[in-house]
Design goal:
Two copies of one chain form a homodimer. By secondary structure, chain A is α/β, with parallel strands linked by helices. The first copy, chain A, contains twelve helices and twelve strands. In chain A, the strands form two sheets. A six-stranded parallel sheet of chain A has the order 2-1-3-4-5-11, sandwiched between helices. A six-stranded mixed sheet of chain A has the order 7-6-8-9-10-12, with helices on both faces. Chain A is elongated. Chain B binds a DNA duplex (30 and 30 nucleotides) through helix 2 and helix 4.
Chain lengths: ~350, ~350
DNA sequence: TTTTTTTATGCAATCGTTCCCGACAACGTT
DNA sequence: AACGTTGTCGGGAACGATTGCATAAAAAAA
């Protein structure tokens, strides 16, 4: 099945003009006489002419499209960030092409390759939890493809980065637990490769240190796929509560981990009602859980916006950008029942 | 900032061959001698040559991209459906470009225009709740752009459609409420323009009729933006409970409406504990609510898959497709606490 | 009337790729 | 020796749009 659109040639033929004249008339060039211009414009309108963006891309060597690579759009943080990305991109005349890595380095590489090779003008990337090898991105970046990282960033590539203040967010959440009397605070977190994991762990440690609570390695559990595989969260949870020293609070890092944890937490057989729980998540259903969930909320929409602005700035810059910044946006601790003093 | 990639010309020049020979060697044409082929292939590999998809699109008059138009990716149903779409599309070598209408006819039109004009080979559409005028889609469809509707469909365009069995799903949910002793069952639903609204209302009515409960117009409230604007759900809720005959159960249609309703339902000031609640939603957090929520779950992933298969079939068909089908997939009623007998 | 200037238009190259032809060896057949 | 095959390869035209340059006709200046 083929889909035929009117081209500049059709107009030229119909009006007995050359394609150049039509092209210029369409773009309102002063060289074209008002009558011809009017003729062309009216005919173009009549047959509903639209310039072929693909031909334009080829000519101008740009596609006016930006690629987004995230792990899962079903994750609240990312769907909100994408809304932020779109809000800026569409206003500036850019398409947004979204692809998901599903936390797999393999799929991330394939998607990036797919998006690159001149079909996008720039990339907005949040790394998968599996990613340790950045050569696929580095190669493209070195060739001149603008890339901005957001949320899950890397130090291996020197470019703009936009992140939440994860360390401070984790610090506040942990300190909040401490203030409410909790002492054995477990931390279930994402893959240790991720920047967000390191930053949040750091905040967690800082809060413990400030309040003279000794850091206990055994209270930190890593879920290498960010909770995408429920089993790994299950295992982390089991291990935490099968040890000698059971935690009296859980601090989770990551949307998926938080909700999956909550479902174990609500296990009807075992009672965890003495255990406090809080975590990073951007769900807007936290009020509806029982107990309602204390959350660390990231400014996802704004992160998406800022990252997009920086990327478009890079794309449209005449000279290579060499001065890079890392924008950090504050998180918000929303206190609800799940962390109240017992 | 510009991003340079190696082209077939670079290879030709380096190897002192013509572009045609290089092109043929790369595609493994039998006309090229094994030695030349090897030479070209090795050099291409060395400089990491990737064919320019834009040039290919222009030449082949197809982009190997399909456009998706949904109201909100943050909606669980849609993000799951998109996963289904992707799973098929990527395997068949198609890109997926997602755009959101945010329940606005205006934005839907802009996005569709943007996606069309030869930059996508076909469209997967779920209409916005505001859409009454389909001329933008009709025009493109008549020109030969393959379109498949899913979830929120229309009769005005004769093409493939993929939907959940909304009528039966609504019927089962309503009947379940009736079996559990509820009699004054309210129905809070989406915009009356939408196919899903009509179908679910129909199922609701059928269940009432079967059990000899008179249909009461006042128990049905419409939220014209599918719950995107919390106020309209608020109003619907208020009206239902300010009347003389208060409902003893609520049946909601739509992800957003269901969760927003739940938050009013959990209003700490007013007590709705006698009121049962259930609705269409694809959240996987229903277990975590309090009370845990009885839901009608749609096979979102499968709907996305089937729609994509049908679309690609249309795109790749040599002759215009004239035989259209409407695939209907079963929903699943998952019974939890929120509808238990009181 | 002739020359210069202005105005309006067309030609052709370009972007990267494919593919229809045509070119031209090195054969084998008559 | 003349011709047809076969195997390799290059030339060049597309695909749709833009744009520098050339050029025709018309208008203005000489």
């Amino acid at each position: 099945m083929k889909f035929e659109t009117a081209t500049i040639k059709d107009i030229a033929k119909a009006l007995n003009l050359s394609t150049s004249t039509v092209s210029r008339a369409l773009r309102g060039s002063y060289e074209i006489s008002p009558e011809t211009k009017k003729l062309v414009l009216e005919y173009a309108e009549k047959i509903n002419y639209r310039p072929n963006p693909i031909a334009l891309s080829l000519k101008e060597r740009r596609s006016r499209a930006i690629g987004v690579v995230v792990s899962e759009i079903a994750n609240n943080f990312f769907s909100q960030a994408i809304n932020g990305i779109e809000s800026i991109a569409y206003n500036r005349g850019y398409h947004v092409i979204i692809s998901q890595s599903h936390e797999s380095q393999e799929r991330e590489m394939v998607n990036v390759q797919h998006l690159a090779s001149r079909s996008v003008d720039g990339l907005l990337v949040s790394l998968s939890s599996e990613t340790t090898d950045l050569s696929h991105l580095k190669q493209l970046y070195d060739k001149g493809l603008p890339i901005v990282f957001f949320d899950r960033v890397t130090n291996e590539i020197d470019t703009h980065k936009v992140i939440a203040n994860n360390t401070l967010g984790a610090f506040h959440a942990t300190e909040h637990l401490i203030y409410n009397g909790y002492k054995r605070i477990a931390h279930i977190t994402n893959s240790p490769y991720l920047s967000i994991t390191k930053e949040r762990l750091e905040g967690y440690k800082q809060a413990l240190e400030k309040h003279n609570i000794e850091f206990n390695e055994n209270l930190v559990k890593y879920c290498n796929h960010g909770g995408m595989i429920a089993d790994e969260v299950d295992e982390a949870f089991q291990k935490l509560f099968s040890g000698k020293v059971k935690p009296d609070a859980i601090f989770t890092a990551g949307d998926r981990i938080t909700t999956v944890c909550l479902s174990y937490y609500k296990n009807p057989k075992k009672k965890y009602s003495d255990v406090a729980i809080t975590g990073f998540t951007n769900t807007n259903l936290a009020d509806l859980f029982s107990p309602s969930l204390t959350t660390v909320r990231q400014p996802a929409f704004e992160i998406g916006q800022v990252a997009t602005e920086l990327l478009i700035q890079m794309i449209e810059s005449k000279r290579p950008v060499t001065d890079f910044e890392t924008r950090m946006l504050d998180t918000e601790l929303i206190i609800r029942e799940s962390t109240k003093p017992r």
